[in-house]
Amino acid sequence: MSEPSMTLNNPGQSGSMREQDLILHVQRGERELFYELVRPYERRVYAAALAILRNEQDAEDAAQEAMLKAFANIRQFRAEARFSTWLIQITVNEALMRRRRERTVVMEGLDNRRDAGRDNESEYAPRDFADWREIPSEALERKEVRQRLAEALATLDRKYREVFMLRDMEHLNIQETAEALGITVASVKTRLLRARLMLRDLLAAGWEQGWFSRLPFEKGNKPW
Amino acid sequence: MVVNQKMLNCEQVWREVSNYVDSEVDAALRSTMEEHFRTCKRCASVLAGTRNVVQIYGDDRMLEVPAGFSRRLEKRLAQNAAVKGGGWSSWSAWLVPVAAIALIAGSLLLVNSLTRGHFIRSHQALPGNNVPPDLQVVVSNGSKVFHVAGCPFIHDKASERTMTAKEAMQEGYVPCTRCLRRYLKTGLTGHSGIVIADSGGAEEEEEQGEVLSVAGH
Predict the structure, then answer these.
(1) B85: in domain
(2) ipTM, 2 decimals?
(3) 20 to 30 A from A93, CA-CA: which of A182, A212, B86, B102?
(4) How close B54 gets to chain A, by Cα (Å)?
(5) Is residue B178 assigned to a domain?
(6) Chain B 7-66, CB below 8 Å of chain A: which residues?
């Protein structure tokens, strides 16, 4: 997925240049431009919060709060970082802080600490080896397909889901993902591998259940 | 991960398939894995499925927000700026105090208009107090005061105009300190609310005007 496209007032400017201009203007006090600056990332911000909190209302609250914090600290943003990454990291921090406040997290945290030690020794063997066919992009136009994919993702354990979402949906790199979650690069890689393989099997199972039955695949072939 | 690149088995390939998709393997391992994928249908399927997952979940369309999310976010940002007064916009930062000053000025003008009802032609003159509004008075050109008919201090009698006291005051005239002195003795001014101790200001000005007028003749 490419970076979100920016609305260009000047067609000659690139999206990143336009973003840099917006940042400078907001930092200099033209704060009415802040929403224009963050608007391309609002979906990513919400998704990052949702990945951690798993509740739409909590995710929206956290996303809004993260935007306010970004707004309040915009002067501290330095150009050497990607603005989108900076914004997502603020969101992740906000969501993690909220989750820590929740009593139910205590037990989940214990489970995760137990699991953390097994990252390096975890093995996950793929279960389905059917022939691959690419799922066409048009499939995502269907709401029920997106819903199924979201449900599959939601079944993953939190530590796998968080890494997967930040890396593959928010497009943070490995290092950024590790920093955002406060884990090692090695843990990110291990969890990412497992998340991807588990999702691959879940989608294969979904195929068996007819999730993509309306897709124009050839009869008898799975999407992989 | 250290692997014998010439002897990769399927399990080893699976462990590295995610790094392979992310180009996080060195050239030698990549080459070995590619060779394995060419000959192993199962691992090729694992690779293709992994890539599929990355591609399909990486699509922007997978990032959905609840209905009205954007509107609520924009509103929240604006509310936050308003509460903090932190200059959500550069123009509103100075617009607020300017509006406040305008409001105060407007309030003062309103108070003045309620108590005075009109501007005053002379900066030194004082307005009348409890002048009967329907009282017929006389004004003339070049003068800043109004008089009762027949007042000896009316100058330029050729230009006399008769009107009510209310109309005269609305035009900025003040009572003559001679013929209408009783309306200047006491009372609240329209300016500051202080009690008038002496009404000589209008008289002095009028008299000065008369002197000049006489001198001019």
Answers:
(1) no
(2) 0.76
(3) B86
(4) 6
(5) yes
(6) 11, 14-15, 17-19, 21-22, 24, 41-42, 44-46, 48-50, 52-66
Q: CA A191 to CA A40: how far, in whole Å?
A: 28
pLDDT band at residue B91 using 50, 70 and 90 as cut-offs? very low
Question: Cα A97 to chain center, whole Å?
Answer: 17
Q: How do residues A3-14 score in pLDDT, each as one tens digit?
A: 443 333 444 445
- Extract the tokens encoding B155: 């100058």
Domain closes at, from B23, B40, B59: B59
Rg for chain B, CA atoms, rounded: 45
pLDDT value of position B141: 81
Task: For strands B161-164 and B145-146, give the pairing.
Answer: unpaired
Chain B residues with CB under 8 Å of A7 CB are: none
Q: Classify burial at A40, counting beta carbons within 10 Å of its beta carbon; exposed 0-12, middle 13-18, buried 19 or more.
A: middle
Using DSSP, state whether B120 is helix, strand or coil: coil
- Does CATH place domain A120-224 in 1.10.10.60? no
Within a domain: B91: no
Domain with CATH 1.10.10.10 in chain A: 120-224
Least CB–CB distance from A224: residue in B18, B45, B88: B45
Q: Provide the domain count of chain B.
A: 2
B82 falls within a domain:
no
Mean of the per-residue pLDDT values of chain B:
72
Distances, alpha carbon B125 to alpha carbons B29, B45, B149, B152, B191, in Å = 101, 101, 21, 19, 11
CATH 1.10.1740.10 range(s) for chain A read 15-104
CA distance A13 to chain B (A): 23
Determine the topology of domain A15-104 in CATH: Rna Polymerase Sigma Factor; Chain: A (1.10.1740)
Strand partners, B195: B188
Whether residue B153 contacts residue B210, with contact meaning beta carbons closer than 8 Å, is answered with yes
The pLDDT confidence band at residue B69, using thresholds 50, 70 and 90, is very high
Predicted pLDDT at A38: 93
B82 CB within 8 Å of a chain A CB? no
pTM of the complete model beyond 0.90: no
pLDDT digits (tens, 9 = 90+) for A104-124: 545 555 555 444 445 544 577
Q: Strand B136-139 vs strand B161-164: parallel, antiparallel, or unpaired?
A: antiparallel
Give residue B206's domain range.
136-216
